[in-house]
Structure formats: C-alpha cells, structure tokens
TrEMBL record:
It comes from Streptomyces polygonati. InterPro entries: Dna2/Cas4_DUF83, PDDEXK-like_dom_sf. It comes from the Bacteria. Residues 9-163 form the DUF83 domain. This is CRISPR-associated protein Cas4.
C-alpha cells in the first residue's frame, strides 16, 4: 500500500481531476503511455524551459526551482486548473520537508504564454497535508469511485477503463 512519503504530484493531480483515475493509478493501471494527450504534455515539457534542471524528491518530481525558492511547473494545457495549483502546493510542502523554504509555485502555460503565481501560505500547507490524507484514504477504498460525466473525460488516458461497457 502507499504511504504518505509515496504521494507524488501525479497522485495529487489525479485526486483533483478524477478520483476514479487516481484509484486506478494506485492499483497499477497506467495507460498514460498510450495517450496522445500525455505524449503532447511530455513534448511541451521537453521543449519548454530546457535550461532548467528538474528536481527529484523521490515520489515528487518538479520541473525546476529558481534562486528565490519558487517552484516552477510547465503545463501543457492552455488554462489553469485546481489540480495545477494543488500540485504546486504539494511540491512546496515536499520542499519544506527537506529544509527548502519554498515561497510558492509559478505555473507556466506555454500555449497561451501565461503564468500564474501562487504564494505558499500556512493555509496552502494545511491544504497540501489534507490532499495527502485524501489520497491515502482513497487508496484504502476497496471499490472504485464512480465515473465523472463523460464530458469531463475528454482526452483522459483512462477513458477505456471507465467507459467500455
């Protein structure tokens, strides 16, 4: 089973995007490599901000951190989502745990040439801890959560698992 230290950014993203997606992922169902959407995201990541070094914190892998201790994440989507902000909070929490005083997260959206900056506050830290607890709770659930509305599943690499009858 997964422990608190095993919870990474993907877990947090899936928690916010779709609990069923997270539940399947936690059970080793990983169809992402077959998804053109995921492949596009990897291509955007590999070609954007190439002069920066990714930071590997074990389960959490963030794109880069600057000299002022701001976490930077490059997103392939054109618009921000609550999952993006949650990932940024999670990475700040992980950095604080290893003694780096992360100031917050800067989310980059190369498609639209926009950025969003989210300050890491005590409230953000509390929410990041709650998110980890929510992942662990879902991990221990024996039955899969229900599906989202089909319109919310557009582009999801798990669609076949949820919608094949």
């Amino acid at each position: 089973m997964i422990s608190e230290d095993d919870v990474g950014g993907v877990h947090i993203k899936y928690l916010y995007h779709c609990p069923r997606q997270l539940w399947l992922y936690l059970r080793g169902i990983r169809p992402e490599h077959l998804s053109t959407t995921v492949q596009l995201g990897e291509a955007v990541h590999d070609t954007s901000y190439t002069r920066n070094t990714p930071v590997d914190l074990g389960a959490a892998k963030l794109d880069f951190i600057d000299g002022s201790h701001w976490v930077h994440e490059v997103k392939s989507s054109s618009r921000p989502s609550p999952a993006d902000e949650a990932q940024g909070r999670h990475y700040c929490l992980r950095l604080h745990a290893v003694g780096i005083d992360a100031q917050g997260a800067v989310l980059h959206y190369p498609k639209t040439r926009r950025t969003q900056r989210h300050l890491y506050t005590p409230e953000a830290a509390a929410q990041a801890r709650t998110d980890i607890a929510d992942v662990l709770t879902l991990a221990s659930t024996p039955a899969s959560p229900g599906r989202l509305a089909r319109s919310a599943c557009r582009g999801c690499s798990f669609t076949d698992y949820c919608w094949t009858e």
